[in-house]
C-alpha cells in the first residue's frame, strides 16, 4: 500500500468500516502520535473538484472524476488517507459530494450526516465551492451548515473547529470583496439557529475559526492553481501548534482511540432523525432570487447617478444627499420586485431584504462621509465663532454655550437632509461625537485661558515679592519678618482678588475655584520661601558686608579714621552683634508669626561665650547648637541649622579678624606719629644740663638773634616739608620723601628772600600786607601738604576692612 493509504471509512450505505480503519491506523502508525495529529475533511457539491484539490494539496491519491466521461459521482461515502510530507501526522477525509443526482432530491440524509460527522471529527473542514455560487443558498451549503450548527451544539460539547471556505475558479473579483459576504452569511446562519439554553449567548467564535481562500481554475490556469495550492499547503504544517490552523483542540482524543471515537460519533449521528434540507422548490427560488439580487446590486454599482453622487461626497457635503440617494436605491429595489414577483414569497422577501442590506452596506461609508463633512464644518464654525466671541470680551461660559447651541442646531438640520429613507440610520453617535469635540475644544481653550491667568498673576507676584523680600532680608532686623509677612499678606490678597474676579466668567465649581486660589496663595508663599533660601545661602557674604559697613563707617555713614580715640573693642562688638542679628533672622522662615528663641540662643552661645568665665557658664548653651533642628521650629522651616550657624560664625570671625587687626595697627601708628616730642624726663634733663648754655645766651643777646633766625628758618622748613605728615607713614618712607624735597625747599626759601631784598622800599602797610600774603601762601601750601600726607593714613582702616 502507498504512503497515503487511502481507505474507505464509511461506505455509501452508511456502514462504518471498522476493520478498514484499524488497518489504516496500523499502516500509518497513527496510534503512536498521541495528541500530535490533525484531521482535515472536505465537503462541497458533487464534481466540484474536491478530490483533485486534496490530491494536489496533500499528496493523496483519491479517485478523481474523468472529465471526458462526463460529470458523475466519483467519491461514494467517506474516504480517509494520510497527508504526505506534512508534520505532524495529518489525516484527510474526502466526503461524498452533496446535491448528487445519484441519490436523488429527497434522499439527503447521508449528505447531512456525513457533513455533521466531518464537523464533529475534524480540526479543519474545507468547504469547496465555486466562485460564481457565492451567495446561493444550496450551492454554498448554507441550509446544510445551518442544520449542522444546530445539531452539533445539541450533540457535542463545544469544540473549536476551523472552517476554511475554498473558493474555486476565482474570477477577477478581489477576495477582499468576496470574503465579507461569506462571513456575513455564516454569521447570519449562526444567529438564526435555535440554540439550547446552555448556548443561548455563545458566539460563533467559540465553535469555529472561519478562514477564506481563493484558487484559480485548475483547467484554465493550471500553473497558477498549483502555485496557490503549494502556498496553501504551507499553512497546514505544524497546524496543531499554538496559533496554528487547527482549533483549540480541547476535545481531541488520543490517536489510539480515534477509531472508537469516530465510530461512536457516527452512530450518534445516524440515530438522529431530525436532520432535513429545504425542498427543491425552495432551493430553486433561493438560487434564482439570489441571481436577480446580485444582478441588481451590480447594476447599482455601475449606476452613473450613484457614482457621481459618491464622487461629489469625497470633496465635501452635498445638498439633498438623502433625497437623491433614496431615489436611486428605490429604483434598484423596484426592478428586483418586478423580476422576482412569481417566486415563493418568503424566499423573495428574504432575498430582497438581503439585497437592501447589501446596498445599504455599500452606501453607508458614503453616508458616513457626509456626516463627517457636516461634523467637521460645524466644529470649524464653532471654533471661529467662539474665538470671535472671546475676542469681543464676552464671558467664557456664556460664549461657549451660545456658540455650541448654534452650531449643533445647524448640524441637526444638515443631518435631516442627509438621512436615507430606506435606512433610517441613527445620526446620534455622530452628533454625540460633535458634542464631545466641541466640549473638548472648550475644555482645551478653558485650560489655556486659565493657564494664562495663572501665569499672569504668578508673574505679578514674582515682581511684587522677589525684590522687596530680598531687600528686607538684606537689611535684616527685628522687623524683617513682620514686614515680610505684611508684604506677603498684602500682595497675596491683591493677586487672589484679581484672579477671583477673572474666574467669575468661567462658571467653575466652587471646589476647583477654591483650589486655584489656594494654589496662588501657596505660590506666593513659595516665592518668599525660595527667596529666603537663596538669601540664607548667601548668609556669610551678608554678614561680612554688614560687619564691614558698621565697623568701617561711623553713625553718619562716613568712613572711620583711626585717630586713636576710637574704642575698637566696642565697635567690633557692635558690628558682630549686628551680623549675629542677621544670622538669627535668616536661620528660619517666620511666615506664621510664631515666636522662637533663636536670637537669644545664638547670642548666648556665640557672642557672650568669649571670656573664660562666660565659657564655663555657657557650656549648656553651646551644646544646644549641636543639633540639626531648632527648638519650637519645624524642620521644613529651617534654613540654617544650629550646627551650620556655629560653623558660619566660626568662619565669619576668622575672616573678619584681619579687618580688626588692621584697624588696631592703624590706630597704633597714628598714636606714634602724634607723640614726636621727647619724654618729660628728657626735657627736664635738657633743662638741668643746659642751664650754663642758657645763661650764656642771656649774657650775649646776639646769640638770641641767631637762635631766633634759626627758629624762623626751621619753622619755615617744617611747614614747607610737612615733616609730621611725612613721618605718619613710617620713619623710612618719611626720610626718603624728605631727602627728595629738602634741597628744592631750601632753594625756594632763599629765592624768596633774595626777591624781597631786591624789591624797592614801600610804606610799612604794603610791607606788612606782603608779609601777611607770604604767610598765608606758606600756610596754604603747608595745609595742602599736610592734607596730602595724611590721606594715606586715613585710608588704612578703610582699605583693610574692604
Automatic annotation (TrEMBL):
<keyword id="KW-0547">Nucleotide-binding</keyword>
<keyword id="KW-0472">Membrane</keyword>
<dbReference type="InterPro" id="IPR027417">
    <property type="entry name" value="P-loop_NTPase"/>
</dbReference>
<dbReference type="InterPro" id="IPR030386">
    <property type="entry name" value="G_GB1_RHD3_dom"/>
</dbReference>
<feature type="topological domain" description="Cytoplasmic">
    <location>
        <begin position="1"/>
        <end position="677"/>
    </location>
</feature>
<dbReference type="GO" id="GO:0003924">
    <property type="term" value="F:GTPase activity"/>
</dbReference>
<keyword id="KW-0342">GTP-binding</keyword>
<dbReference type="InterPro" id="IPR008803">
    <property type="entry name" value="RHD3/Sey1"/>
</dbReference>
<dbReference type="InterPro" id="IPR046758">
    <property type="entry name" value="Sey1/RHD3-like_3HB"/>
</dbReference>
<comment type="function">
    <text>Probable GTP-binding protein that may be involved in cell development.</text>
</comment>
<protein>
    <recommendedName>
        <fullName>Protein ROOT HAIR DEFECTIVE 3 homolog</fullName>
        <ecNumber>3.6.5.-</ecNumber>
    </recommendedName>
</protein>
<keyword id="KW-0812">Transmembrane</keyword>
<feature type="topological domain" description="Cytoplasmic">
    <location>
        <begin position="723"/>
        <end position="802"/>
    </location>
</feature>
<feature type="region of interest" description="Disordered">
    <location>
        <begin position="757"/>
        <end position="802"/>
    </location>
</feature>
<feature type="binding site">
    <location>
        <begin position="44"/>
        <end position="51"/>
    </location>
    <ligand>
        <name>GTP</name>
    </ligand>
</feature>
<keyword id="KW-0256">Endoplasmic reticulum</keyword>
<dbReference type="GO" id="GO:0005525">
    <property type="term" value="F:GTP binding"/>
</dbReference>
<dbReference type="Pfam" id="PF05879">
    <property type="entry name" value="RHD3_GTPase"/>
</dbReference>
<keyword id="KW-0378">Hydrolase</keyword>
<comment type="similarity">
    <text>Belongs to the TRAFAC class dynamin-like GTPase superfamily. GB1/RHD3 GTPase family. RHD3 subfamily.</text>
</comment>
<dbReference type="Pfam" id="PF20428">
    <property type="entry name" value="Sey1_3HB"/>
</dbReference>
<feature type="domain" description="GB1/RHD3-type G">
    <location>
        <begin position="34"/>
        <end position="249"/>
    </location>
</feature>
<keyword id="KW-1133">Transmembrane helix</keyword>
<keyword id="KW-0175">Coiled coil</keyword>
<dbReference type="GO" id="GO:0005789">
    <property type="term" value="C:endoplasmic reticulum membrane"/>
</dbReference>
<feature type="compositionally biased region" description="Polar residues">
    <location>
        <begin position="760"/>
        <end position="781"/>
    </location>
</feature>
<feature type="compositionally biased region" description="Low complexity">
    <location>
        <begin position="782"/>
        <end position="791"/>
    </location>
</feature>
<feature type="topological domain" description="Lumenal">
    <location>
        <begin position="699"/>
        <end position="701"/>
    </location>
</feature>
Amino acid at each position: 500500500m502507498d504512503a497515503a493509504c487511502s481507505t474507505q471509512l464509511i461506505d455509501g450505505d452508511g456502514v462504518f468500516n471498522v476493520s478498514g480503519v484499524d488497518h489504516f491506523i496500523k499502516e500509518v502508525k497513527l496510534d503512536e502520535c498521541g495528541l500530535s495529529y490533525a484531521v482535515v475533511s472536505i465537503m462541497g457539491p458533487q464534481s466540484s473538484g474536491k478530490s483533485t484539490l486534496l490530491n494536489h494539496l496533500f499528496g493523496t491519491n483519491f479517485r478523481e472524476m474523468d472529465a471526458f466521461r462526463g460529470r458523475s459521482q466519483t467519491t461514494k461515502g467517506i474516504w480517509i488517507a494520510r497527508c504526505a510530507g506534512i508534520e505532524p501526522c495529518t489525516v484527510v477525509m474526502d466526503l461524498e459530494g452533496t446535491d448528487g443526482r445519484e441519490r436523488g432530491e429527497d434522499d439527503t440524509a447521508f449528505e447531512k450526516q456525513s457533513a455533521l460527522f466531518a464537523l464533529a471529527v475534524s480540526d479543519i473542514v474545507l468547504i469547496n465551492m465555486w466562485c460564481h455560487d457565492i451567495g446561493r443558498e444550496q450551492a454554498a451549503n448554507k441550509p446544510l451548515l445551518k442544520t449542522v450548527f444546530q445539531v452539533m451544539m445539541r450533540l457535542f460539547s463545544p469544540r473549536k473547529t476551523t472552517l476554511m471556505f475554498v473558493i474555486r475558479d476565482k474570477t477577477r473579483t478581489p477576495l477582499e470583496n468576496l470574503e465579507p459576504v461569506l462571513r456575513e452569511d455564516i454569521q447570519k446562519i449562526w444567529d438564526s439557529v435555535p440554540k439550547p439554553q446552555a448556548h443561548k449567548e455563545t458566539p460563533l467564535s467559540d465553535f469555529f475559526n472561519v478562514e477564506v481562500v481563493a484558487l484559480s481554475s485548475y483547467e484554465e490556469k493550471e500553473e497558477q492553481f498549483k502555485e496557490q495550492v503549494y502556498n496553501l499547503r504551507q499553512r497546514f504544517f505544524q497546524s496543531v501548534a499554538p496559533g496554528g490552523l487547527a482549533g483549540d483542540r480541547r476535545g481531541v482524543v488520543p490517536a489510539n482511540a480515534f477509531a472508537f471515537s469516530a465510530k461512536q460519533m457516527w452512530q450518534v449521528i445516524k440515530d438522529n432523525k431530525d436532520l432535513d434540507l429545504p425542498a427543491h422548490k425552495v432551493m430553486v427560488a433561493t438560487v434564482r432570487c439570489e441571481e436577480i439580487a446580485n444582478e441588481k446590486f451590480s447594476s447599482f454599482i455601475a449606476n452613473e447617478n450613484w457614482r457621481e453622487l459618491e464622487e461629489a461626497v469625497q470633496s465635501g457635503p452635498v445638498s439633498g444627499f438623502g433625497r437623491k440617494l433614496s431615489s436611486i436605491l428605490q429604483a434598484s429595489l423596484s426592478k428586483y420586485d418586478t423580476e422576482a414577483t412569481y417566486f415563493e414569497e418568503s424566499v423573495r422577501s428574504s432575498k430582497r431584504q438581503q439585497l437592501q442590506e447589501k446596498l445599504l452596506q455599500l452606501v453607508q461609508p458614503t453616508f458616513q462621509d457626509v456626516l463627517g463633512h457636516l461634523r467637521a464644518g460645524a466644529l470649524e464654525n464653532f471654533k471661529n465663532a467662539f474665538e470671535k466671541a472671546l475676542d469681543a470680551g464676552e464671558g467664557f461660559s456664556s460664549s461657549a454655550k451660545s456658540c455650541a447651541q448654534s452650531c449643533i442646531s445647524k448640524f441637526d438640520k444638515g443631518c435631516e437632509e442627509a438621512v436615507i429613507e430606506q435606512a433610517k440610520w441613527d445620526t446620534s453617535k455622530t452628533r454625540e461625537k460633535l458634542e464631545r469635540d466641541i466640549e473638548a475644544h472648550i475644555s482645551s481653550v478653558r485650560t489655556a485661558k486659565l493657564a494664562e491667568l495663572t501665569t499672569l498673576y504668578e508673574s505679578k507676584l514674582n515682581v511684587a515679592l522677589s525684590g522687596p523680600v530680598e531687600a528686607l532680608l538684606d537689611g535684616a532686623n527685628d522687623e524683617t519678618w513682620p514686614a515680610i509677612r505684611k508684604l506677603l499678606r498684602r500682595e497675596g490678597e491683591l493677586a487672589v482678588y484679581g484672579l477671583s474676579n477673572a474666574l467669575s466668567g468661567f462658571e467653575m465649581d466652587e471646589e476647583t475655584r477654591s483650589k486655584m486660589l489656594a494654589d496662588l496663595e501657596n505660590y506666593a508663599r513659595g516665592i518668599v520661601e525660595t527667596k529666603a533660601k537663596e538669601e540664607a545661602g548667601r548668609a556669610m557674604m551678608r554678614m561680612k558686608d554688614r560687619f564691614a559697613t558698621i565697623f568701617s563707617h561711623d553713625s553718619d555713614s562716613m568712613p572711620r579714621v583711626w585717630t586713636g580715640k576710637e574704642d575698637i573693642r566696642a565697635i567690633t562688638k557692635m558690628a558682630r552683634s549686628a551680623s549675629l542679628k542677621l544670622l538669627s533672622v535668616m536661620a528660619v522662615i517666620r511666615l506664621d508669626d510664631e515666636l522662637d528663641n533663636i536670637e537669644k540662643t545664638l547670642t548666648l552661645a556665640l557672642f557672650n561665650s568669649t571670656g573664660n568665665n562666660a565659657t564655663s557658664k555657657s557650656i549648656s548653651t553651646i551644646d544646644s547648637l549641636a543639633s540639626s533642628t531648632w527648638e519650637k521650629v519645624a524642620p521644613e522651616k529651617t534654613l540654617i541649622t544650629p550646627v551650620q550657624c556655629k560653623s558660619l560664625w566660626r568662619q565669619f570671625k576668622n575672616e573678619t579678624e584681619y579687618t580688626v587687626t588692621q584697624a588696631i595697627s592703624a590706630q597704633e601708628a597714628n598714636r606714634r606719629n602724634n607723640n614726636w616730642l621727647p619724654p618729660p624726663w628728657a626735657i627736664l634733663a635738657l633743662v638741668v644740663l643746659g642751664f650754663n648754655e642758657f645763661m650764656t645766651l642771656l649774657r650775649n643777646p646776639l646769640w638770641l638773634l641767631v637762635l631766633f633766625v634759626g627758629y624762623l628758618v626751621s619753622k619755615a622748613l617744617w611747614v614747607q616739608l610737612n615733616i609730621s605728615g611725612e613721618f605718619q607713614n613710617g620713619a623710612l618712607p618719611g626720610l626718603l620723601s624728605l631727602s627728595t624735597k629738602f634741597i628744592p625747599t631750601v632753594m625756594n626759601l632763599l629765592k624768596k628772600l633774595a626777591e624781597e631784598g631786591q624789591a624797592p622800599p614801600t610804606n610799612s602797610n604794603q610791607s606788612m600786607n606782603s608779609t601777611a600774603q607770604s604767610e598765608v601762601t606758606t600756610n596754604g601750601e603747608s595745609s595742602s601738604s599736610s592734607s596730602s600726607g595724611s590721606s594715606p593714613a586715613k585710608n588704612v582702616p578703610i582699605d583693610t576692612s574692604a
